[in-house]
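Protocol step 4 of 5: obtain the predicted structure for the target chain.
Materials: sequence only (see below). No template structures provided, no constraints applied. The aim of this step is simply to have a reference model before the mutagenesis design in step 5. Sequence pasted as it appears in the construct record:
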Amino acid sequence: MAIASVPGQDRAKRLLQGMLRSGKIAHAYLFAGPQGSGRSALAQAFAMTLLCERGGDDACGECLTCRKVEHGNHPDLHRIVPDGQTVKIDQIRELQRELSYRSAGSQRKIYVIEAAETMTTQAANSLLKFLEEPPSPVVAILIAPSEQAMLPTIVSRTQLVPFTPGDPKAMEALLVQEGTPPLIAKSVVHLSAGFEAARALAAENWFAEIRNVVIQLGREIPSRFPGVLLTAQTQVFKTDLSEHTDILLQLFALWYRDMIYVMTGREERLVFPDQAEWLSKQAWTRSVHAWTRSMEAALSAVRRIKANVQPQLAFEQFLVTSAQTAG
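Step 4 output (structure tokens):
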């Protein structure tokens, strides 16, 4: 994949290609931004460009070197991923041994560390020493969610390449262009930090099903409580959809935001445009403040699940709050 073909992240691409044109390549980079924003894809494209036989500010994608990078078997490109929950010191030591050998022919060696924020203290300290005295032909690319997730001493020795959440409209158009159903595309872009994540979510077979459950439950909450608890039990928690309760809740937040959009004349922004007629009737039964409280209840339940509250309990408490608010 060439740099130009990575969707979005124009600022990051301009920064990297400017360095490539000037020939001022840093010995270490920190690709910092949310998961799914294209960090790994751009790291791969940047590495391919650095190793490309033709040089320039983007990979040709055709030479033998580019093809080796694309197929994951270039001897001078090394990728580290967490061993279990963390990147361990033995992995960093093995990497350093690999990098001490002579290059297989290219001018530089490159290593990419995924989830660099998970490095153990020993691994981070070992890498720090390596960054302080880098072999000149070696380039490091560290991938992390933010600068704050990394040791300041490591951040100070890297060139920051910031990644930002993608523009939903642009991502939606790209997904539809690739063949994603428009209603699915419209939903996933609001649940994803970038195009990679949106594309992956859209490809999940369960996503369309979980969207339908949100519509069913959302329609039932105002009139069929507590029967809606039974629906949730049978449709979600006795099925594999229970593994995706966080996505279900995030979709509910968007469902209630659509109510607010109807009330404020912004129907063109609806995430559930196929439900516009029902939403337009229901929205005016409550105040904007009440719908906002329902949105907040859904997002609060997501946070509780991340804090290890049992998903079914968090979801049922959200349903109770929503029924009290929207009933």
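Step 4 remarks: The mean pLDDT is 92. The chain is about 55% helix and 10% strand.
Proceed to step 5.
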